[in-house]
Design brief:
The structure holds 2 protein chains of 2 kinds. By secondary structure, chain A is mainly alpha-helical. Helix content of chain A is 68%, strand content 1%. Chain A has a single domain, classed as ABC transporter involved in vitamin B12 uptake, BtuC, CATH 1.10.3470. Chain A is globular, with a radius of gyration of 20 Å. By secondary structure, chain B is of the alpha/beta class. Chain B has a single domain, classed as P-loop containing nucleotide triphosphate hydrolases (Rossmann fold), CATH 3.40.50. Chain B is 40% helix and 24% strand. In chain B, strand 7, helix 6 and strand 8 form a beta-alpha-beta unit. In chain B, helix 4 packs across helix 5. Classes of the chains: A mainly alpha, B alpha/beta. At the A-B interface, helix 1, helix 9, helix 10 and helix 11 of A face helix 2, helix 3, helix 4 and helix 5 of B.
């Protein structure tokens, strides 16, 4: 890879006191606290600046999917162009369960995530020995398999029209009920809860010895192998973890729209996740969140003015890649201290 | 029992015989050098020992076990570590992290997603000990990709050492280095050999480096073993002088 540095994540992930200095740690903690404060209070200020709560929810959902893609792309060094498959499996999983089997939001989500995990585990076994462009191509191919299943299997999946005629249901805690169906804010916090947990788990993994082996593989696969790391096996585990979180994002997306579309499964959706990760900065943990925010908000604003909104996002993407190849958060990276 | 026993290995790439029927025995604690002019098949020979390539014929026995067809990672688990002619490190990570990853893998933590305080302390102590040994403690927060070639090489050797190997394979450890760096790395190798009684095989094409370092030297030329013996025996061998020193002098 290049010699451009992100001491940023180097420091965050070292775990040792050696590579931290107290002021960068303070800066990081303040940024982190600010981020959570913004997310926790979003429903109360977002409308004031012209947004709406469901848009905020959509940002979180897409950010979670983009973060799952970036777990592979930015931290394992593996480019998946087929993550829409697992996103879509999550969405169809929750939709099909609620529509046909049991009207339970949480159970539907569990099935959606589990389906994505199982599909990811099996497909992963077949592809983890591939690298680079071959890996990316095969992930597209497998992704399209699921797209065509959803597209063709009319009487179960609704085919081209998508899976409709179901909706998310209030969560019953016994003593009280969380009405995520009618209260937009309640649903926002419901999604934020899963987003926070997922982000915390991914961050914890990346700070662990296992996470460091993934970064080692990204940095130099040959060295990793000759340290005694069974590289393919570690990539497989990383892949399955990533598919699981992408499935969760898909399930939440299905719940958000009360709808699962075959488009959720298609290869261009996979591309959108990659764009979000790269746009925000794939070497920064929160890069995909920044990328997803920009993408989703721009899409929302532009698409009310023009059908060609994608051209403008494309232009923005090209400019970003040209002028800050490390993404938006790449602008804030710190230089190595000597 | 010999630590490493290479029996008559051959590697062909199409019609090219890169290594032709070469044998080598390394005893525990021995420092052995393999020398030869460029293109002699030294690195291919190394790749066969470490499992980067599989031989077309012949056997490799490490610590009493036939590892001819064993994957590189498994050879590492059995105590064989190597460095590369072109330094292989993790450029965007700090010196500390480079060594830390190797220490964690060696401790068997590679699949762990959580470490106890005691385990973290153990990793930190071992990492700091290795950095101390390499003389790079003061550069522990530097990104390795921004460091000098000599420092990177030292880090790579420390990463290999973190694995607690019984055999360390060093592929041209002084390649592309200036005199001072060459001297430092040579001293490091000498110290490791003396203090840790670590068996090492090192490849060199610079004969001067090896003469004062290795106990026994094997000379390869055009994929074949030309001579084997003490530095004195090798330098006085006429075939070696013709093939190796002859070309070097010309």
């Amino acid at each position: 890879m290049t010699r451009l540095s992100t001491t940023d994540d180097a420091q965050k992930l070292s775990g040792g006191a050696t590579s931290w200095t107290s002021d960068t740690r303070l800066q990081k903690n303040i940024a982190q606290a600010l981020l959570w404060l913004l997310l926790l209070t979003l429903p109360f200020w977002f409308t004031a600046i012209g947004g709406y709560t469901a848009l905020g929810t959509r940002v979180l959902v897409m950010a979670l999917a983009a973060m799952s893609v970036n777990f592979l792309l930015g931290y394992t060094g593996v480019l998946s162009f087929g993550h829409a498959a697992y996103f879509g499996l999550g969405a169809y999983g929750v939709g099909l369960i609620i529509k046909y089997i049991i009207p339970s939001t949480l159970l539907g989500m569990a099935v959606g995530v589990l389906t994505a995990l199982i599909a990811g585990a099996i497909i992963g076994l077949l592809i983890v020995h591939l690298r680079g462009i071959y890996f990316a191509m095969v992930t597209i191919a497998f992704g399209q398999v699921f797209y065509f299943i959803a597209y063709r299997w009319n009487n179960v999946t609704g085919g081209d029209d998508g899976l409709s005629g179901w909706s998310r249901l209030p969560i019953d805690f016994g003593f009280t009920q969380l009405d995520i169906l009618h209260k937009e804010r309640a649903f926002y916090y419901f999604v934020l809860f899963f987003f926070m947990i997922s982000a915390a788990i991914m961050a914890a993994i990346l700070r662990s010895p296992f996470g460091r082996t993934l970064i080692a593989i990204r940095e130099n696969e040959r060295r990793a192998r000759f340290l005694g790391i069974p590289v393919d096996r570690h990539i497989w585990i990383s892949w399955v973890i990533s598919c699981g979180f992408c499935g969760l994002a898909g399930a939440l997306s299905g719940l958000l729209n009360n709808f699962a579309s075959p488009h959720d499964l298609r290869w261009d959706q996979s591309g959108v996740f990659v764009i979000m990760a790269v746009l925000g900065g794939m070497r920064a943990f929160w890069g995909p969140l920044v990328g997803a925010t920009i993408y989703v908000v721009l899409q929302d604003i532009l698409s009310s003015h023009t059908q060609n909104w994608m051209s403008f996002i494309g232009l923005f993407f090209v400019l970003t890649v040209l002028f800050c190849p490390r993404g938006i958060l790449g602008l804030f990276r710190r230089k190595s201290k000597s | 029992m010999s630590l490493l026993r290479v029996e008559n290995v051959t590697k062909r790439f199409g019609s090219l015989v890169a290594v032709g029927g070469v044998s080598l025995v390394v005893e525990p604690g021995e420092l052995r050098a393999v020398i030869g002019p460029n293109g002699a098949g030294k690195t291919t020979f190394f790749n066969l020992i470490s499992g980067f390539l599989t031989p077309s014929s012949g056997r490799i026995i490490f610590d009493g076990e036939d590892v001819t067809d064993v994957l590189p990672a498994r050879r590492v688990w059995r105590g064989m570590a190597r460095t590369f002619q072109i330094t292989e490190v993790f450029p965007e990570l700090s010196t500390y992290e480079n060594v830390q990853i190797a220490v964690e893998v060696a401790a068997g933590y590679r699949l762990r997603m959580h470490l106890s305080q005691a385990e973290k302390t153990k990793v930190r102590q071992r990492t700091e000990e290795l950095l101390e040994m390499s003389g790079l403690s003061h550069k522990s927060t530097r990104l390795v990709g921004e460091m000098s070639h000599g420092d990177q090489r030292a880090i790579e050797i420390m990463m290999a050492l973190a694995l607690n190997p019984r055999l360390l394979l060093l592929d041209e450890p002084t390649a592309g280095m200036g005199d001072q760096e060459t001297h430092d790395i040579t001293q490091l190798i000498r110290r490791l050999h003396r203090d840790q009684k670590l068996a090492m095989v090192l490849i060199e094409h610079d004969m001067r480096v090896v003469l004062h370092l290795a106990e026994r030297i094997m000379v390869l030329a055009e994929g074949l073993m030309l001579a084997e013996g003490t530095p004195h025996e090798v330098t006085s061998n006429e075939a070696v002088q013709a093939a190796y020193l002859g070309t070097a002098a010309a």
